[in-house]
Amino acid sequence: MSKRPSGRVTLVDIAKEANCSVSLVSIVMRGAPGASEQTRARVKAVADRLGYRPDQRARSLRRARSGLIGVTFNVLQPFHADLVEGLYEAVTATDYELVLGAVVAQTDDIAAAEPLLRDRCEALIMLGPTAPPARLAALAAEVPVVMVARPSRIQGIDVVRVDDRGGLRLVVEHLTSLGHERIVLVDGGKAPGVEERIAGYREAMTAAGLEEHIRVIGGGLDEEDGRRAAVEILELDERPTAIAAFNDRCASGVVNHLLTRGVYVPRDMSVVGFDDSRQATRCIVPLTTVAQDTVLMARTALERAIGRATNRYLPTEQVLVPRLVVRNSTSAQHR
Q1: Which member of 34, 103, 188, 295 has the lowest number of beta carbons within 10 Å of its beta carbon?
Q2: 243 and 287 housed in the same domain
Q3: Where would I find the HTH lacI-type domain in this sequence (predicted)?
């Protein structure tokens, strides 16, 4: 058993002792929904043992405006960097400021959000969060949450995303217009939006009469995931003539490996990405890709966050229309 903290006991002390997040402790102490009865009993027992007493002055401060909007983002994702840039551009027209929480290997979305809560952010914008729905719901019970680039039906959470199904339909329609039939999809592993993009791919292939050529290869979010997928693709008995990748980083990994094996893009295989991030133009072969309008997405997310923070909006889902950007990585099938 840990010894009792010296000085005033805080929610952080309780969270450490109860082995849970600060946001979950806050939910329990406020009696808000989002925690099981077993968790409530455990947290309250720890609070009683440590001698916790609510700080009424802190509660009064939390009720006051801070003028801060928190943003969690993955430092390894170029698409997130584009969104953060768009948020900073949009926030200049408001009287709010942004506070960033980085998601890295050692810090997940919820952990990245906790310092933002301690800074009294009035709302959170979470870019492509991968946390389980229950943990996101618990967070949303404490502060208004706007999720960007992740489909979700979690009650009480705003969603701003692109039409992922429609994006993959654009990809397949573009490739079939160039004469491709054997089109493989490299998915995003466990990333948000995977199911929607797979569904869009399957629907478009079926609509084109290409059901027999439907094939989904396991992939992921980065170049190494793309490389591994390309290795598997090159070992197929019947190679595809075109590859749709989950995002631009994955597509770049595919392109790089194909070139090292003497498979030229787009002469031998066409490759398409998704996001139209800065990675798309930096790839050794500039990528044809599906553009998500990061400026509009960021502006919409910020508007929703401020509206939720000031009790002007109820949670909704905003679905934006994707756009295909054609560059050098696709061409007509060479027979």
Answers
A1: 295
A2: yes
A3: 9-63
Range of 229's domain? Answer: 164-292
- At 257-307, the pLDDT tens digits run 999 999 999 999 999 999 999 999 999 999 999 999 999 999 999 999 999
Q: Are residues 188 and 85 in the same domain?
A: no
Q: Is 256 helix (H, G, I), strand (E, B) or coil?
A: helix
**Residue 265 token pair:** 């893009």
β-strand 323-325 against 270-275: which pairing, if any?
unpaired
- Whether 128 and 275 share a structural domain: no
> Based on the domain organization, do 134 and 219 belong to the same domain?
no
| Strands, sheet with 97-103, edge to edge from the N-terminal-most edge strand | 97-103, 68-74, 123-127, 145-148, 157-162, 317-320
DSSP letters, 272-332, are: EEEE--HHHHHSSSPPEEEEP-HHHHHHHHHHHHHHHHTT-----EEEEPPEEE--TT--P
The whole-model pTM stands at 0.78
Q: Are residues 168 and 287 in the same domain?
A: yes
